[in-house]
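Progress note, sequence design subtask.
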């Protein structure tokens, strides 16, 4: 029996579903890349469970600790997917490569593989339209020193031309000369001055312009194909103001969003504590209120991971549409 369980495929699960009593829900196994992905995909797939089907989210192997996209899509598992066994993965750059690699082809051509479209789950958690709510959740202070959403969108517009160059290097085999990590190292920053966020944006703009000038000198042949690639990316649904959704997720959170939110949250917590100190009638009330306020706070990274506002984004609707089309086949 253990050997049989180790070689499950969609047909096996479909046969097991057929043995269930009439009216019982059909089971669909959804394989994901890592432990961290289980909750995200559970929350996404929950919307599509019906009276007739339910999803079980799990890692690709119950006998080893092997994880990652390769273990989900490659080896034998990729050929075992079907209507009762699906794979749910991060898009990474595979969506942008449009079939240039085997992994990219599997993601694009296999109807039982669902991907995030954005680079990774972290990119959804950093959705610009939800940063204000995350800030409020972390600080219990609704004062926004400047528009976080506008800041991230302007940042994205600034880095867009360099991002196109980075995709170009991957498309034409020069990724070792300008890798995704190189791109992130250029555009990421350590902190901002809350009263002058435009200084950080200008610093990023200078960094981007400097690297673009280097790339233009190194790859003069790119002049003929760069514009075509840019237009193709636009047709794929990438918008300059949403470039951040397609850069490496961990770097986005650690090198863009957290350095943006943490100094703001520090300032807002200080504002709230100063307010409490001003309004407190005596020292005991001051101590109690300060302790209560600090106890109610959560780290900003935790607030980001609770962020669900990405569900409003247009790119997430594409993922929802893919899953809706899949579920409709069950009637």
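Output:
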């Amino acid at each position: 029996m253990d050997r049989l369980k180790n070689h499950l495929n969609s047909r096996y699960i479909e046969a097991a579903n057929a043995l269930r009593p009439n009216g019982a829900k059909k089971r669909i196994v959804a394989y994901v890349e890592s432990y961290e992905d289980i909750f995200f995909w559970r929350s996404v797939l929950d919307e599509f469970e019906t009276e007739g089907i339910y999803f079980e989210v799990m890692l690709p192997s119950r006998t080893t600790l092997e994880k990652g996209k390769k273990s989900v899509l490659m080896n034998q598992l990729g050929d075992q997917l079907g209507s009762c066994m699906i794979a749910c993965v991060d898009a990474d750059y595979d969506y942008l490569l449009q079939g240039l690699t085997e992994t990219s082809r599997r993601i694009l051509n296999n109807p039982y593989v669902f991907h995030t479209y954005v680079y990774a789950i972290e990119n959804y958690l950093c959705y610009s339209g939800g940063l204000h709510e995350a800030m409020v959740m972390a600080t219990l202070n609704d004062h926004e020193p400047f528009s976080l959403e506008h800041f991230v969108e302007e940042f994205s517009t600034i880095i867009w031309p360099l991002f196109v160059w980075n995709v170009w290097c991957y498309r034409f085999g020069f990724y070792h000369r300008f890798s995704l990590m190189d791109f992130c190292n250029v555009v990421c920053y350590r902190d901002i001055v809350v009263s002058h966020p435009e200084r950080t944006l200008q610093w990023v703009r200078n960094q981007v312009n400097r690297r673009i000038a280097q790339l233009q000198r190194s790859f003069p042949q790119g002049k003929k194909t760069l514009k075509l690639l840019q237009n193709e990316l636009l047709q794929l649904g990438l918008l300059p103001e949403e470039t951040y959704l397609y850069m490496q997720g961990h770097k986005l959170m650690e090198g863009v969003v957290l350095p943006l939110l943490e100094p703001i949250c520090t300032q807002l917590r200080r504002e709230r504590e100063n307010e409490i100190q001003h309004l407190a009638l005596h020292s005991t009330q001051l101590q109690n209120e300060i302790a209560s306020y600090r106890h109610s706070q959560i780290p900003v990274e935790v607030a980001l991971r609770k962020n669900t506002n990405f569900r409003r984004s247009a790119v997430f609707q594409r993922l929802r549409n893919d899953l809706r089309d899949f579920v409709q086949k069950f009637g």
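The mean pLDDT is 89. Work on this subtask will continue into the next period as scheduled.
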